[in-house]
Structure formats: structure tokens, C-alpha cells
Amino acid sequence: MMKNTTYKTIALLGVIFILIASACKKKDYFVDGGLAQQSEAEKSMSTYDFLAGRSNHMFDSLVKIINLTNTKALVNTNNITFYAASNEAVIRFQQRLNASDKLAPRPLSKIGLDTLKLLLNRFIIPGNRITLEQAVADKLKTYKDNNTDSINIASAGGGINAGSSIQTSAFRMYYEHRKIKKVDSVNYGSDIQTHNLITANARVHVLANGANFACGLKLKYYR
Q1: What is the DSSP code (8-state) at residue 223?
Q2: Does residue 164 or residue 109 have the better pLDDT?
Q3: Across 39-180, where does the E strand assignment appear?
Q4: pLDDT number for residue 37
Q5: Helices 87-95 and 60-68 meet at what angle, rounded to 10?
Q6: What strand order describes the sheet that includes 140-144?
Q7: What are the angstrom distances between the C-alpha of 62 and each of 7, 90, 150, 153, 212?
Q8: pLDDT band at 159 (very low <50, low <70, confident <90, very high)
Q9: Over the chain, what is the mean pLDDT?
């Protein structure tokens, strides 16, 4: 009886180890309320190579936009802050170019390059490597994006209840592109799901789930 129990215990531990190992292999991208861990090799990559090299292919659509608009050198410019949109954020933008949910998202290759580049520039702040810590210290600060539009970068979270010194939530950064009349429908804002990624030329923050690459742009169809 003791022998069978030992074998079962060993087998169970083996299964748990395999599951943990499998999870670790998949976790090359961090969804957090604060900072993400990176290898030194990743920190020495250009922004383009970092985005293109994700094993989970999370930024494939963004990389395609960069390739279509011939803006690899732009995202690799030194001393920038880059707000990276996931595949889902790009698909939301593509879907808003069609009248029906039953239609497939419009291919990126059939969207005007000027539009794609305009939107990409909205997620690049030149001349700054803004960190989460800087956003927290500033509370709210306005920058100019690569189109010279106004971008508000604010901090959120990190609240402290009255009569207590205990922080109730993690600090996070908030991105907001200010509406341009006749061009945009709304001021566009997004939380950040991963902060302070480092590349050789930039500080990279990943827009939260639910983000939209359209970034407030006035489009024909809204859903």
C-alpha cells in the first residue's frame, strides 16, 4: 500500500512539474500592473526586433504595419517612448472599416498607408523615455507625439485609504490622445498592461486589453 502511494505521489509531482514548465515556456510576455522582467539580450534589441521576436506573435499586426509603412527606422529612433498595440487592438481598427460584423476585417494592405502611418505616429513620443515612475511623479503631463498631437500621460491606481499608509493597488500609466477636430471622434485613452519594457532605443509600454489602434480616429463604422 505504501509503495503504491509513493508511486502515485511521484507521478502527481511529475505532472505538476510538466505543467509548470509548460506555463513558463509560454510566459515570455508579462501582463502586470507594474514592471515586466526582461533578459539582458532583450534589452539590447532594437524596438523593431523586440516586437518581431515575440514567440507568442502578439505584435505581428503591428510589425506588419511598420513594414507596410516603411517605418522600421522610425520605431528604432533613439530616445523615444513607444506605446505598442497588440494584434487585437489592430483588428479592432480593421473591423471598424467594414459595415458588418459578418465581414472579415479589412486587410492592412488595403488601408491607406498615410492613415496607418498617422496612427503609428500617435503611439510614439520622441525625445523622451517615459517610465511608469516618471508618470507617477508627474501625475499628469502633456507631451507631443510624432505628429505633434497632444498626448496626456497620467498615473492611475496606487490609492491609499484615509487614515492608512497602505497602498491599495499598483500604480499604472494612462495614455490619452487628445481629439483633433474634424479628424477624430473622441479623445482616445488606454490603460497600460505592461510597463517599462526596455529596448536599445526606447522605453516600451503595451496598451491594455481592449485598446484600439484607431486611437479615436473618425471612421465610417462604429461597433
Answers
A1: -
A2: 109
A3: 80-84, 124-126, 140-144, 150-157, 171-177
A4: 72
A5: 60
A6: 124-126, 80-84, 202-207, 188-198, 171-177, 150-157, 140-144
A7: 49, 7, 22, 22, 12
A8: low
A9: 83
